[in-house]
Specification:
By secondary structure, this protein is mainly beta. The protein contains seven helices and 37 strands. Strand 17 and strand 18 form a beta hairpin. The radius of gyration is 25 Å and the shape is globular. The termini are far apart.
């Protein structure tokens, strides 16, 4: 009884403490944009969770990939993909799909510095205005801030090192410039990333109590990335015209030493990747500011070249290349409705064409075309304490292609994807939400690519699967949220023809590929709650008297989840996930953040079983601001216990896969906002184009 009483006290204390900080916010309402003085580290919205990166040194001291791996509820695995709270993630950047997955996505995110990111939205309930191909959930990476009415400049640097067999360095620099005047606004973000890393991998079999080694590898990797993101916006009367151009070039190489039964290898691999993205947007403005009409055209190209050469035999083992081109045109319209408080109706259309070509030894062995035409409509309404959203999206697919030996199985279908959401608001900050949506996920071109773009040796083989079929999802979710930070939720995602990574053993050769699984259900139960430390020192009564912002207090944020992958043909076990984030304000305004992640073993992650705990890491960060917050300095130590590793067995095989990266790193990060002498400096609250239901609002967004 006493234990239950104490648990209740902790929960109520957290809720009331957060309630106490619900003071009237100093905000100015300008054309639907509220400028709120205090930024939140985490925000729980009805359809998404928003993580602030720019103000969190514990997240932005390394690469984007390293930062997102620390987010509570997110799993990023090299062997099994990226998921959030049990939902497969489709990754967007500034509101536009990246259209890459697998190792290409990891390499792209690893090459971008996290201090170039403003925030990350994870949209767990994408509505009808988002493409139905978003699958289970969307991770939208938002890069930069608004431009201002004067020239502003921000320089950032992050320097880290790891020390295993020898020192390895990771250095990135970026510069953000932006300005606007009465005619136009512009923004330029340029940067580079240099990264040395190592990975040790072993593949073994265990049969009849006998363990046999198939392959041991040790890889030294060197990554070099340069990027530029630019934007221009022009006011044409009351209307607005926007241009965005992004370019990202990476040049990576790796030396891999491998050995196994009957072979020793010494190989060099080289990867060149060039990604370009151009967007033009026209926004029609109305006297009624709540009306919106946007027209947008997007062109994207992605070129990749991969070669693998043997130092031992002085021959080329692999020479693979691919080219992807994407054309996208869309329009979106919304206006308020008279019969509902805060209600609106939205509709729009899209036409998209994707062309993909893969080459092996300069011979085209995959020619893939995908054309999609779609239209959507959605109604949002509010009556008293209830919010309702009902919508639907119709999409017509024409997917064809051929390899050098046969035609692909065509996918020519017309499908309708409904969505519905209902929310009851107990107060402005406490609500209960239920949601349903049907989505589809089209196989990524990296999963379709029949050519290997990874290291291989006589016992390891990677290959895509050109005959993968789309996955259909039915997503259900219920969530109770309180004061942005505290929540409890349950969701289930039912998938038909789920695309998954599969590792199989054929004649002592490990084959890594992708397959369709007829039916999979993923159940996810999760809870998040802050616990103020002053509950222990001051007690509940004194805590309730305080008027506190959680971002300016000492607290422990607890996240836990239970995830269960239900696959009819095999017996599976669920697993628990834990994330503890402690924030302590030290003397001299030094902020100390400790982040601990742990995922229990013996659970099924699709067709993999975790033989040891994974995502098991303890990260520490000390940070301080100087010169009226113009200079931010942080010192970080990630995976200080050197416990982050992946050890999985593959269902239906005697295989054991072990992987260890040099994850224990130490470093510092500097962010300097170059001061301006313009005393009239004033931030424009809404310089840029903003997607509906999108929390972006920056010049590079869309």
């Amino acid at each position: 009884m006493k234990k239950n009483y104490l648990l209740s006290m902790f929960f109520l204390g957290a809720i009331f403490t957060l309630s106490a900080q619900e003071e009237p916010k100093k905000a100015v309402e300008l054309n639907e944009v509220a400028i709120v003085k205090t930024k939140k580290a985490i925000e729980q919205k009805a359809d998404r969770t928003i993580f602030d990166f720019s103000g969190q040194p514990s997240l932005n001291s390394g690469s984007v990939l390293e930062g997102i791996k620390k987010l509570p509820g997110l799993i990023a695995s090299d062997v099994a993909g990226m998921m959030y709270q049990g939902k497969q993630l489709d990754v967007f950047m500034d509101g536009r799909p990246l259209n890459i997955t697998s190792n290409e996505l990891n390499s792209f995110l690893e090459g971008m510095p996290a201090n170039a990111i403003e925030k990350i939205e994870i949209i767990t309930q994408p509505g009808a205005e988002f493409p139905a191909t978003s699958g289970g959930a969307i991770m939208n990476i938002i890069t930069n801030k608004n431009a201002k009415n004067y020239l502003s400049a921000t320089y950032t640097n992050s320097t880290n090192f790891t020390s295993y067999d020898h020192l390895r360095w990771r250095i990135n620099n970026s510069l953000l410039l932006s300005a606007k005047n009465k005619y136009f606004g512009w923004q330029l973000n340029v940067g580079q990333n240099y990264r040395e890393s190592a990975v040790w991998t072993s593949l073994t079999t265990k049969e009849n109590s006998t363990t046999s080694i198939l392959s041991n590898t040790e890889a030294d990797r060197f990554g070099r990335t340069n990027f530029a993101k630019s934007a221009l916006t022009f006011d044409i009367g009351n209307d607005r015209l926007l241009f965005n151009y992004d370019v990202n070039y990476s040049n990576n190489n790796s030396n891999t030493l491998g050995n196994g039964p009957g072979f020793i290898t010494n190989d060099d691999s080289f990867t060149d990747a060039l990604r370009q993205d151009f967007v033009v947007t026209f926004q029609k403005k109305f006297e009624d500011k709540s009306k919106k009409l946007d027209f947008k055209f997007n062109y994207n190209s992605n070129q990749n070249d991969f070669t693998l050469n043997s130092r031992t035999n002085n021959i080329a083992i692999l020479d693979n290349a691919s080219t992807q081109r994407l054309y996208n045109a869309k329009f979106d319209y919304s206006q308020p409705i008279a019969f509902s408080d805060e209600g609106k109706i939205s509709f729009g259309g899209l036409y998209e064409a994707l062309l993909f070509e893969a080459q092996n030894m300069q011979i085209v062995n995959l020619d893939y075309q995908r054309k999609t035409a779609s239209a959507y409509g959605e109604l949002q309404s509010k009556f008293d304490k209830f919010n309702f959203i009902v919508g639907g999206r119709a999409e017509d697919y024409n997917i064809t292609g051929k390899t050098n030996t046969a035609n692909l199985i065509p996918f020519k279908q017309f499908r309708f994807f409904p969505n519905a959401s209902a929310q009851y608001n107990f107060s402005n900050s406490v609500y209960f939400n239920v949601n349903y949506n049907k989505k589809i996920s089209l196989p990524s071109t990296s999963a379709l690519n029949p050519n290997n773009t990874n290291y291989q040796n006589p016992n390891i083989e990677y290959s895509g699967n050109p005959n993968l079929q789309p996955t259909i999802f039915d997503n259900y979710e219920a969530k109770l949220s309180a004061f942005d930070y505290a929540f409890i939720g349950y969701n289930v995602s039912s998938a038909q023809n789920q695309v998954i990574n599969r590792v199989l053993l054929t004649d002592n050769v490990v084959v890594n590929t992708n397959i369709n699984v007829p039916q999979i259900k993923i159940h996810n139960f999760n809870v998040g709650m802050p616990i103020p430390y002053m509950l222990f020192t001051e007690g509940l009564k004194e805590t309730m008297k305080m008027n506190i912002n959680p971002d300016k207090m000492n607290f422990l944020y607890v996240y836990t989840a239970y995830q269960f992958h239900q696959i009819p043909e095999i017996k599976t076990n669920g697993f628990w996930m834990f994330n503890l984030m402690s924030q302590i304000l030290l003397p001299k305004d030094i902020k100390f953040v400790a982040n601990f992640n742990y995922i229990m073993s013996k659970g099924n992650y699709f067709y993999f079983i975790a033989e040891k705990p994974f995502n098991n890491t303890l990260d520490l960060t000390f940070s301080k601001k100087f010169f009226k917050d113009q200079l931010s300095v942080s010192i970080s130590a990630d995976d200080i216990l050197n416990s982050n590793r992946f050890v999985f067995s593959s269902v239906g095989t005697p295989l054991l896969l072990a992987n260890k990266n040099d994850t224990r790193r130490f470093g510092f990060s500097v962010n300097y906002k170059i001061p301006t002498k313009n005393k009239l400096a004033k931030e424009d609250p809404n310089l840029l184009n903003k997607e509906k239901k999108e929390e972006g609002g920056n010049i590079l967004n869309q």
